[in-house]
Specification:
Blueprint (H helix, E strand, L loop, with lengths): L2 H12 L3 H21 L5 H15 L7 H25 L19 H7 L3 H9 L3 H11 L5 H8 L3 H21 L4 H8 L3
Helix pairs in contact: 1-2, 2-3, 2-4, 3-4, 4-8, 5-10, 7-9, 8-9, 9-10
């Protein structure tokens, strides 16, 4: 989904091309699912389905480039996460075993490789030490690959607040990882992400 090919991919998806949809879903779904899970969204797989149903429904009205599309999808994800939490609070549901994550043809970047060095449980534990806003900012920046400006729009906050949340969140993650004996390189990788 880069450059001019994204425009063609988007047009094909709007025209109902299943391969185009599969490409869009395959490249965005893992990051969106990671966002939902790391923010402790209730039933993240169902929420992911609802997100992509809304994307499909609203796609004819979308205008923009690839970065704007990615930010748009994460904005939908954020709103659906809030809706899912509200719904879950009204009707608690017994959790069931998680199905496997969608397969993705992407290669992990440095921050994802650093996170892969520790277990999923450890990642959730470390993210659990952050405030909800810090966690949301870091996940949108790292998994969502969104800019500070895009995260500010998704969360409805000022860019300065996003930068402060990111700085405090990364410092907390670094302290927690160092306390657990994870190498300083992993913490630096997280701090060095754009």
């Amino acid at each position: 989904m880069r450059g001019e090919s994204f425009g063609a991919l988007l047009t094909a998806a709007r025209d109902g091309d299943e391969a185009a949809w599969a490409t869009i879903y395959g490249r965005l779904a893992p990051a969106v699912l990671g966002y939902l899970r790391s923010n402790r969204g209730p039933d993240p797989e169902d929420t992911l389905s609802e997100i992509f149903l809304q994307v499909a429904r609203d796609l004819p009205r979308f205008e923009g480039d690839e970065r704007q599309f990615r930010a748009w999808v994460f904005t939908i994800a954020h709103h659906r996460l809030i809706d899912a939490r509200r719904s879950s609070a009204r009707r608690p549901v017994e959790p069931v075993a998680e199905p496997p994550e969608p397969e993705a043809p992407w290669e992990p970047d440095a921050s994802e490789r650093a996170l892969a060095e520790i277990s999923t449980e450890e990642v959730h534990r470390v993210l659990g030490t952050l405030t909800g806003n810090q966690r949301a900012v870091l996940v949108l920046r790292l998994l969502g690959d969104l800019s500070v400006e895009e995260v500010a729009r998704v969360l409805g906050k000022r860019q300065g607040a996003i930068k402060a949340l990111q700085r405090r969140g990364l410092a907390a993650v670094r302290r927690e990882l160092e306390r657990e004996g994870v190498t300083p390189d992993a913490g630096q990788t997280l701090a060095g992400s754009r």
